[in-house]
Structure formats: structure tokens, C-alpha cells
Specification:
13 helices, globular, mainly alpha
Length: 320
């Protein structure tokens, strides 16, 4: 029973949440359109959580991903105001994310600053930079190319489901591609195995010849890049950009990884389990929103469920 509780408690809880919303919202919750909407809403979090998994595999974390996402969106929007083509603005914004992640990696791996301190500092700095370059204002309107905003609203047509035309959103497709790439990186390459080795025992990994500093630098760069991509996706979805629009991504991404780790035998992060954690958070938010639950109450409920899942798994693992 303890093994079942530790390994599958989160899945049982997720199933209970699904049943509750299905019963409470019989006409809207279990519909193709709603689930495709959930996938679009979760797409930015999926991308950030995938990047967060890369660093949490090593036992680290990155507090700056939310600010990184906001700054990337601002950079792209500002370049649009100077009539840069979409591909150029997006490329520069992604490079900003990669560079910001590389700074985190340098501070942690080569300077020796703790991840909490280093990424907390860059979180504050990146947030300040986003406010400075944007003037603290939302960039929207004619500054955002119509085709850039249309990208998030369009998708691949899936036909008529129950008499309703549905399509797979482009943002969902981007998230699926990112998940596939990160999964291959972590589970099917030497790079990924070495990251897990660092997370298991960093001293043993170093003595085995693993280039710990270089791998951490690459890992944090990739996390910064995924955060920037999420910020660009968010800017496309709302056809605007502001200095705070990525603020909620960091906590939710870490929460998703922790939720997913409760499904792992040894409690280590795994990407596919992280996606389950994202699903739990996304379904909760969607269902509670449809039930018109106040946003502050939603935060309390989500936090309580995360705490319950992680503490239950930890307690069962300790008893074993």
C-alpha cells in the first residue's frame, strides 16, 4: 500500500480531480474544444517546465525563468516597433534567453554562487531590465505584426467533433516539439545521463570524468532558452508584451516538476512525469475557472494540493 501510495498517489488524485470536474461541469469540461483549450493554456508552462526539468535533474533550479520570459517577450515586441521581421525579432529574443541562462550557469558553475542566490539575483536584474527597456508599459497594437498574433490563434484543423470544428493550436504543437526534443536529450543521450549522474552524486560524477561545470553551463543556457521561447509564445497569444507577463511561470514550473517527481521511484525529476504535473495544474486552473472560483482561492487550493502530494509521497518513501 505504501509503494502504491508513493508511486501512484498523484495519479489517483488527478483522476479524482477529473471526475469531480466532469460531474460538476458535464456540458463543458470533457469536450474536445475544452481540452484543446487547456493544451493551449498549458503550452507556455509545458515549455518552461521542460527547461526547468533539465536543471532540476542536476539538483539545481532556476528562479529567473519568469523574468526571462517577460524580457524575451519585451525584446521581440520592441524589435517589432523598429520593423524587424518576425524571424529576426524572435531569434534575438531567443538569444537573449540563451545568454541569460548562460550567465546563470557561469555564476553557479565557475563563480561558485549557490543556485538560489544566483538566479534570485538575475531574476531581479532581468525584471528591472524588462521594465527599463519597455518604460514599464505594455507594448501592443500596431507594433505587433498581425501574423505574429495570428500564429497563436491558428492551428491544424482536426475536423468536426460533435458538430464543432476543432483544431490543434500552433502553441500546443510548439510545446509538443519542445517536450520531444528535451525528452530525447535527457533520456536518450550521453549528455542527459551525465546530468542525472551530477544530480545523483556530483563528486562521483566529477571523479568519473564528467565535465560538471561545462554541463551545468549548457543546462542553464537551455533553460534560459526555453523560458525565452515561452515568453515569445505568450506575447503571440495575447498580441502584446509587458514586463510582468511571465511572473507566474517560475513557481508553476517548479511545482510541476515536484508534482511529477512524486511519480518517480527515487523521487528524481523525469520529463514525462513533469508533464503529468503540468496537466494537474492546468486541469485544476481550467476547472476552477469554469466554476467561477476566485483566483486567490484557486491559489490556496493549488498550493494545498501540491503540498499534500509531495508530503504524502515523501512520507511513504521514508517509511519504506
Amino acid at each position: 500500500m505504501l509503494t502504491l501510495l508513493r508511486r501512484y498517489g498523484t495519479l489517483v488524485g488527478f483522476a479524482a480531480i477529473l471526475i469531480f470536474f466532469w460531474v460538476s461541469l458535464p456540458d463543458t469540461f470533457m469536450t474536445a474544444r475544452n481540452w484543446l483549450n487547456i493544451s493551449q493554456q498549458m503550452s507556455m508552462l509545458i515549455v518552461v517546465a521542460s527547461g526547468m526539468t533539465i536543471v532540476m535533474v542536476m539538483g539545481d533550479f532556476d528562479l529567473s525563468v519568469g523574468s526571462m520570459a517577460s524580457l524575451a517577450g519585451i525584446v521581440a515586441a520592441i524589435l517589432f516597433t523598429f520593423d524587424y521581421p518576425i524571424w529576426a525579432a524572435v531569434s534575438v529574443a531567443l538569444l537573449v534567453g540563451l545568454a541569460g541562462g548562460a550567465v546563470n550557469g557561469l555564476l553557479i558553475s565557475f563563480v561558485g554562487i549557490l543556485p538560489f542566490v544566483a538566479t534570485l539575483a538575475t531574476l531581479t536584474m532581468l525584471s528591472g531590465v524588462a521594465f527599463v527597456v519597455s518604460g514599464g508599459k505594455t507594448i501592443s497594437g500596431r507594433a505587433i505584426p498581425e501574423s505574429f498574433g495570428n500564429f497563436a490563434r491558428e492551428g491544424i484543423a482536426l475536423g468536426d467533433w460533435g458538430g464543432v470544428a476543432v483544431s490543434l493550436p500552433n502553441l500546443t504543437i510548439v510545446a509538443i516539439v519542445v517536450v520531444a526534443l528535451v525528452w530525447v536529450l535527457l533520456e536518450q543521450t550521453t549528455f542527459g545521463r551525465r546530468l542525472y549522474a551530477i544530480g545523483g552524486n556530483i563528486e562521483a560524477a566529477h571523479l568519473s570524468g564528467v565535465a560538471v561545470r561545462r554541463l551545468k553551463l549548457i543546462a542553464f543556457s537551455l533553460t534560459g532558452g526555453t523560458a525565452a521561447l515561452a515568453g515569445i509564445m505568450y506575447a503571440s497569444r495575447v498580441a502584446s508584451s509587458n514586463p510582468t507577463q511571465g511572473s507566474g511561470l517560475m513557481l508553476n514550473a517548479i511545482a510541476a516538476v515536484f508534482l511529477g517527481s512524486t511519480l518517480s521511484e527515487h523521487g528524481e525529476p523525469r520529463l514525462l512525469y513533469t508533464i503529468v504535473g503540468v496537466l494537474v495544474l492546468g486541469v485544476l486552473d481550467n476547472g476552477l475557472t469554469q466554476l467561477s472560483v476566485d483566483s486567490y482561492v484557486r491559489q490556496i487550493l493549488v498550493g494545498g494540493i501540491i503540498l499534500l502530494a509531495v508530503s504524502t509521497s515523501s512520507y511513504a518513501r521514508r517509511l519504506n
